[in-house]
Amino acid sequence: MITTGDLKKGLTIEVEGQPCQILDWQHIKMGRGGAIVRLKTRNLRTGAITDRSYDAGERFKRLYLDRSNVIYQYNDGQFYHFMDNSTYEDIALTEEQLGDAKNYLIDNMELDIVRYNDEPISVELPEKVVLKVTYTEPGFKGDTATGGSKPATTETGFVVQVPLFVNIGDSIRVNTSTGQYVERV
C-alpha cells in the first residue's frame, strides 16, 4: 500500500478494483482545511480517463504489471492483433485498450504488451517512432522566416505539426508521449 505522498506520474494503482495509471496529479493545500490530492487516471482495461480528488494520506494498492515483447501484425477493424515473440500466441486488443498508441502502430513494429493478472490490457510504445508522411501541403520558399509549421498526415493516419521543409514521402521521428515532431530522418 502506498499513500498519496508516494504517488507520481506513470505509477499504476488500483482504484475501485480497477487497474489505473496515473496521468497527472496535484497536491493542493486548502486555506483552513486539510490537503487534498487531485488525480487524473486512465483505466487500463477500458481506457476511460477520470479526474478525482482524495484526502491527503489516503492509501492505494500499488500494482505491478508484467511486460512481454510483441510484434504488431494488423488491424481487422475491430481488434489490433499482436504476436508474442516467445510463445507465438495471437493477442487482440481493442481501440479503447490502446488509447493514443493506435496512432503510432506500423506493421511489424516491436513493442511491449502490458498484462495484469495474465490479462493483456495495453501496450508500451518506444519513446520515439519513425513514420512516413503520406500527405502535406507544399512549403514555399521564404516561408521559413516565420519558423512556421504545417499539418502532415502520416502512414497511420495520425496528423502531426511539422516544419515547412517536410514533404510527402519523407520519414519523420515523432515523440510518442507528446505526439510532436522531433526530426526528419
Automatic annotation (TrEMBL):
Location relative to the cell: Cytoplasm
Gene Ontology terms: cellular component: cytosol
Annotated ranges, domain Translation elongation factor P/YeiP central: 67-121
Signal sequence, renumbered to the chain: none
Pathway connected to this protein: Protein biosynthesis; polypeptide chain elongation
SMART domains xrefs: EFP (SM01185), Elong-fact-P_C (SM00841)
UniProt KW keywords: Cytoplasm, Elongation factor, Protein biosynthesis
InterPro entries: Elong-fact-P_C, NA-bd_OB-fold, Rib_uL2_dom2, Transl_elong_fac_P/YeiP, Transl_elong_KOW-like, Transl_elong_P/YeiP_cen, Transl_elong_P/YeiP_CS, Transl_elongation_fac_P
Elongation factor P C-terminal domain boundaries: 129-184
Superkingdom assignment: Bacteria
Molecular function per GO: translation elongation factor activity
GO annotation terms (biological process): peptide biosynthetic process
Chain's role: Involved in peptide bond synthesis. Stimulates efficient translation and peptide-bond synthesis on native or reconstituted 70S ribosomes in vitro. Probably functions indirectly by altering the affinity of the ribosome for aminoacyl-tRNA, thus increasing their reactivity as acceptors for peptidyl transferase.
The family this protein is said to belong to: Belongs to the elongation factor P family.
Name by which UniProt lists this protein: Elongation factor P
Recorded name of the encoding gene: efp
